[in-house]
Structure formats: C-alpha cells, structure tokens
Write a structure and sequence with these properties.
With 130 residues, the chain is mainly alpha-helical. It is built from four helices and no strands. Helix content is 82%, strand content 0%.
Length: 130
C-alpha cells in the first residue's frame, strides 16, 4: 500500500473516530448532563475502539505487526494523545469563551497528526527485516 493510500485511510478512519468521539461527548453533555471534561473520557473510550479497528483493518493491514502488539502500542499512543487532548481541552475550557464543542473539535484535529506519525512509525510497524 502506498503512503498516500495509507494516509487517506488514516484520515478517513481518524475522521470517523473523531466524529464518534465528538457525538458521544456532546450526547453525554447534552443528555446525561455530564461536565465536558468527564464526557470527553467517555468519548475517547468509544472512539478508541472505532479507531483501532479501522486502523488495524484498513490503514495498516498487512503491516506485519501482530494485532496484540499493535493494540498495546496503539493504546499507549491513544492514551498519550488523549492526555494531551484532555490537558489542552481543560486549559481552553478555562481560558476561552468559545463553546465547548468548538474547542473539542480544535483539540481533536491537533492530536490527529501526532497519532498518525506514532502509529505509522511504531504501533503498526512489524519487525524490521534482519
């Protein structure tokens, strides 16, 4: 698979996961009356499942990484990204007058680049040829 095709799949899966994350957060805030930062945790957990399945099955299929290894590594990347997401989101919620959903969208986009680079270079990478 070419890098361009892989990048296109990554963006498609990432946009899907980000949309799921966004919808879950907004749903938890609007209908369950959870605070945005707490709802963000729920959104991330649901989006993680969507993201891993999509990246494993579409973006990085045939990469040679065993799925358990890829799952552990991708979880660590996702957790790191979520930690950055939550910290940035908390700061923006505190210091900005913009709506919570717009701030969430900005943070989700910013974390996506880091996730792609780490996923392609570590999480889904198989063993290097000897």
């Amino acid at each position: 698979m070419t890098t361009l095709v892989r990048l296109a799949w990554f963006v498609a899966v990432g946009c899907t996961a980000a949309a799921v994350h966004f919808v879950v957060v907004v749903g938890l805030v609007e209908f369950m009356l959870l605070p945005p930062l707490l709802a963000n945790v729920g959104g991330w957990l649901v989006a993680f499942v969507v993201s891993f399945c999509g990246q494993w099955l579409l973006t990085f299929r045939g990469s040679g990484a065993p799925w358990r290894q890829a799952l552990r590594r991708f979880f660590l990347i996702s957790l790191g990204g979520f930690t950055a997401n939550e910290a940035a989101y908390a700061l923006l919620l505190h210091f900005s007058a913009l709506p919570y959903d717009l701030l969430l969208a900005l943070v989700l986009v910013a974390v996506a680049v880091m996730t792609y680079l780490l996923s392609s270079r570590w999480a889904f990478r198989g063993k290097s040829p000897a």
